[in-house]
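Saturday, quiet lab. Running sequence design on the structure tokens for the scaffold JK sent over.
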């Protein structure tokens, strides 16, 4: 990724708490309003509590804007450094459930994430563009996730594919991944047909809900906006903060919110499409080796083994994505992707 020397400087770290965890009572957001009209951008960090690179990059940039070292001249940008404060305090992916699934307001909240969604959804409603900053379990290069092509279908109707692709290209990574919600729909159908017997009633209700695949970007598209999920690198990779920082600054430049130079789009882009998701069925299901996101596999190659010893094989030539050796039973173990035809 091309970055200026200033963008490569380490971001100021958000201190992880050492005191006993208390249930958070609020969600912190900070908005900068330009004095000329323009788009409304929302930038999220730590939607998953152990994915802290976005929170660190956002915190450093908030300080720079506050000190007057940078300026928002048009439109507005709202920063939410820690979107799931309970998961962040616990230093783990979730608090009481995955915030980035079943994203919708709840008339009768059932858990902490429902209460966060009741605040977060109106924030998403009031913005035009979303940049959601994440990281992943295992090694691999950064990548960015986009939604569908323009369509009027039932699953995810959309009308801003061109703008979303342009945003994805300017976040930095050359690899772009699509097909998220369609893949989730297939996974939901399988879970509903064969529910995990040891899952809690609440968890099972969630993973078999047709809305299960809707996270921040899917909700944003459903409300008329657009957005991308940037996977900045492995959780502990120190370069992930720089990836997040670069993406924020380039998004501000692309949307014309801040007077910043716009770096050229990567010339060697690669577009992959998620085509399937495989769930972990038993705690003793294991991978045959330590997979990294986008490791290539050949048709028939063994990826893992079930508790029974039965091999789990690649259905075709493609790539392993989001391998999670610590996945909970009944939830996503890995995804399978192929190059866009």
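Result came back. Writing it out in full:
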């Amino acid at each position: 990724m091309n970055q200026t020397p200033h963008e490569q400087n380490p971001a100021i770290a958000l201190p992880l708490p050492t005191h006993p965890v208390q249930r958070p009572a609020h969600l912190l957001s900070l908005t900068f309003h330009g004095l000329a009209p323009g788009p409304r951008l929302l930038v999220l960090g730590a939607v998953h509590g152990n994915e802290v690179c976005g929170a660190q990059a956002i915190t450093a940039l908030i300080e720079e804007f506050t000190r007057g070292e940078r300026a928002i001249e048009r439109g507005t940008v709202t920063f939410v450094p820690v979107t799931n404060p309970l998961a962040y305090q616990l230093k783990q992916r979730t608090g009481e459930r995955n915030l980035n699934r079943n994203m919708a307001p709840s008339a009768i909240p059932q858990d902490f994430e429902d209460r966060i969604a009741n605040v977060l959804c109106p924030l998403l409603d009031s913005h035009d563009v979303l940049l959601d900053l994440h990281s992943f379990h295992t090694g691999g290069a950064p990548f960015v996730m986009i939604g569908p092509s323009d369509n009027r279908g039932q699953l995810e109707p959309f009308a801003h594919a061109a703008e979303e692709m342009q945003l994805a290209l300017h976040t930095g990574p050359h690899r772009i991944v699509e097909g998220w919600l369609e893949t989730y729909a297939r996974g939901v159908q399988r879970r509903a047909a064969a529910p995990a017997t040891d899952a809690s009633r609440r968890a099972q209700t969630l993973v078999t809900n047709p809305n299960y695949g809707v996270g921040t970007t899917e909700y944003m598209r459903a409300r008329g906006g657009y957005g991308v999920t940037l996977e900045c690198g492995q959780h502990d990779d120190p370069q992930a903060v720089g990836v997040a920082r670069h993406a924020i600054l380039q998004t501000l430049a692309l949307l014309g919110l801040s007077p910043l130079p716009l770096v050229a789009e990567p010339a060697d882009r690669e577009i992959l499409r998620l085509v399937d998701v495989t769930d972990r069925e038993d705690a003793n299901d294991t991978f045959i080796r330590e997979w990294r996101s986008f490791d290539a596999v050949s048709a028939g190659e063994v990826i893992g083994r079930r508790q029974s010893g039965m091999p789990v094989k690649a259905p075709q030539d493609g790539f392993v994505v989001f391998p999670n050796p610590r996945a909970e039973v009944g939830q996503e173990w890995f995804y399978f992707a192929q190059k866009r035809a």
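Notes for JK: The radius of gyration is 20 Å. Confidence is low (pLDDT under 50) at residues 1-13. Ask whether to fix the surface positions before the next round.
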